[in-house]
Structure formats: structure tokens, C-alpha cells
């Protein structure tokens, strides 16, 4: 029994350990996962996707506009008083009920290619909307990458602050013992305590900056604050500094064929040209082919069902010169109401026709539409020029930023290397009492500041080179730095 209880206790402990480990095994997000999730959840991207759907609907509508139109109609009418029955063409003085059923079809044979050019314009508008969506995704991806790298920078900054703080704590304990033994003046303890307080403040500031950068990325991803959120820290110690071999001009020429904002402006220019052609089509004659098929029913319609022969009957005339009446054959026709189905069958009528409409004057509507289309075409040309200009300027700025970041990174690396060696010598002198605590703290602060500058230059260089690669059509990633 004791053995059984022991086994149960072990099982409960193992289960609790597994559950605790599962809870503590918090998901960490890679840069690629953050970008993918942001693209799926971002409201601006969803709004742009709706614009894309609307463009697709416009294209479908214009394509269906080439098909014939078909309409059906049905009516049920009561006529009171004297009227002409539309189906018997006879006068009726009683209440007449009539029904009409019609199908009408019409197709535009020619309208100055307005429909064709409208379809072409809507097709290129759809392509422009697709490019707009890709542009929005690219912008979100860059924002995510920037915030992600800011988190990595703040993490390293926090680790450095914590590491420096631990070293200073050890130095503070040593100084305290030396002061107590009389080997160091009381001022040395005050100096190291001030240094300790400053480094604790640096650690707190670094932690706050890390929390803020995590919050910024969390908010961009639309992740609730109640959910755990942490990012993966890839190994980025070895950074390739030869990524800037391309010139700004070469990068720009390559980007013209791949950047979605350029494609969007190009598509809209083509769409504006097609819209202008469609507007000019309103000057042309319009040829339409139409046809109809219908039938009807009348409540007074009758049909002959038989004839009653009365033989020879006086017809009202007399033989000339006598009073002898003239007899003639006499018959009486027999009628009955014609059935609904028979009338629908017998009253069928159809028509087909061709119409030609020549625009002569329409309140200058066609001319005004053409003028507006010309203005939109000029605007599209300016938009394309402006888009290319902005792209060139962005690439030139990004290239200079990356070049400057590369130089700062190299300079900061050399500075940290030199100050690290210098601080080793300073620490040795301080340990043997050849340097006071004030000068020691100054040298250490110089090293801390240099390390901070190196981290900032490092991540700035990474982001700037990622931007340059992005303009060359490469995927944002930290795997191949």
C-alpha cells in the first residue's frame, strides 16, 4: 500500500512538472513569424484587400456588360367602361381583365468600343490594386523588422548593463573592505557607490526600453497584453560587411521592375489611357440589336364552337311588285369564352429590330467626360514620375544611411576593442592601488558608452542593409547576415 501511495506521489509530481514546464515553455516569435502574422492581422492590409475585392467586382461587372440584357415582364389589368380590348381589337363596355407576358432582350453591337476599353481599364485597375496590397505588406514588413531589431538591441543593452552592474557590485564589496582596513580613503567608497547607483539606473532604463519595444511590436501585431510575448534572438555575431557592393543607380534600376508602388503607378497610367479611349467612344454611333417575345390573355375573348341552322327565314326584304317576303338561309353562331391556355398559345407575338443612335448633342456630357479623362491621364503620368522620383530618393538615402552605419559600426568596433584593452590595464592599476576609484569609474563609463554605441551601430547597420536588400527584391530575414 505504501508503495502504491509512493507511486501516486511520483506520478503527481511528474505531471505537475510537465504542466509547469509546458506553461513556462513560452512561445518565442521569429522575425518571419512576426511578419507573417502582421500581414494576416493588420487592419490597413485588410482594408486594402477590400479595395482589391471591389476592383475585382468592377472588372466582373464590365465583362458581363458585353452580354445581352434579358428582362421579363408580366401584368394583370382591369379596364372599366368602354375600351378597346388589346387582343380582340373590339369595343368592350364591361369590365375587362387582361394579362400580358413579355421577354425583352437587347445587346449592344457597337458603341465606339466603350465596353471593350472599360474592361481593359478595370483589368489594369485590378492589377494596380494588387500592387497596392503588396506595397502595404512591404511597409508592414519593414516596420516589423525595425521593431524586432529594436528589441534585439535593447536585449543586448540590458545584458551589458546587468553584466557591468555585477562587476561593479564586486568592486564595491572589495572597496568596502579596503576602506574598512584603511587601505583606501572613504571617498573611494562614495565614488564606487555613486557608480553602482548610476549603473543600476542604466539597468532600469535598459529594462524599460526593452519593455517598451516589446509593447510596440505587440501592438503592431495586435496581440493582447494578457498574452505572453517574446522573440527569438538569432545569432548575429558574424555580420557580412560586403553587402553594399551595388551602387544606388543599379539598385534603383533593378527596383523599377520589382517594387509594387512603381507597378501600381504604371498600371494606373495604362488604365487612364483606356478610360480616355472609352470616353471618346461616346462620340461614335451606337448600334443595338433587340428582340421581344410575348403573349397575353383577355377576359372578353371568345371562340366559335358551333352554328345553328334555322333554314330559310325572311330577311326583311320583299319581292319587287308584291308583298311576298324574301327568304334566305339563316344561321346563328355559337361562342364560348376562350380558355387561358389557348389564348396564351394563340396570342404569341415576337419582334426583332436593329436601332442606330447617333449622338448629336447631349449637353456636352461626352466632351466633359473626355476632358476629365485627359486630366486623369496627366495626373497618372505625374504620379508615375513622382513615384519613381521618391523611389530613387529613398534608395539614395538608404544607401547613404547604410554606408554611414557601416562606418560607424567599424569605428565603434575598433573603439570597443581599444577601450576593452585599456580598461583591463586600468583595472589592474586600480586593483593594486595605483588608480583612484574616480578615474576607474570614468574609464569604465567610457567603455560602457562605447559598448552601447557599438550595439546601436550594429543593429542600425543590420536594418539599413536589410532595407537595401528589400529594394532589390530580397526577403527580409536575419538568417543570412
Automatic annotation (TrEMBL):
<comment type="similarity">
    <text>Belongs to the outer membrane factor (OMF) (TC 1.B.17) family.</text>
</comment>
<keyword id="KW-1134">Transmembrane beta strand</keyword>
<feature type="signal peptide">
    <location>
        <begin position="1"/>
        <end position="25"/>
    </location>
</feature>
<keyword id="KW-0812">Transmembrane</keyword>
<dbReference type="InterPro" id="IPR003423">
    <property type="entry name" value="OMP_efflux"/>
</dbReference>
<dbReference type="GO" id="GO:1990281">
    <property type="term" value="C:efflux pump complex"/>
</dbReference>
<keyword id="KW-0813">Transport</keyword>
<dbReference type="GO" id="GO:0009279">
    <property type="term" value="C:cell outer membrane"/>
</dbReference>
<feature type="coiled-coil region">
    <location>
        <begin position="119"/>
        <end position="178"/>
    </location>
</feature>
<protein>
    <submittedName>
        <fullName>TolC family protein</fullName>
    </submittedName>
</protein>
<keyword id="KW-0732">Signal</keyword>
<keyword id="KW-0998">Cell outer membrane</keyword>
<keyword id="KW-0175">Coiled coil</keyword>
<keyword id="KW-0472">Membrane</keyword>
<dbReference type="InterPro" id="IPR051906">
    <property type="entry name" value="TolC-like"/>
</dbReference>
<dbReference type="GO" id="GO:0015562">
    <property type="term" value="F:efflux transmembrane transporter activity"/>
</dbReference>
<dbReference type="GO" id="GO:0015288">
    <property type="term" value="F:porin activity"/>
</dbReference>
<dbReference type="Pfam" id="PF02321">
    <property type="entry name" value="OEP"/>
</dbReference>
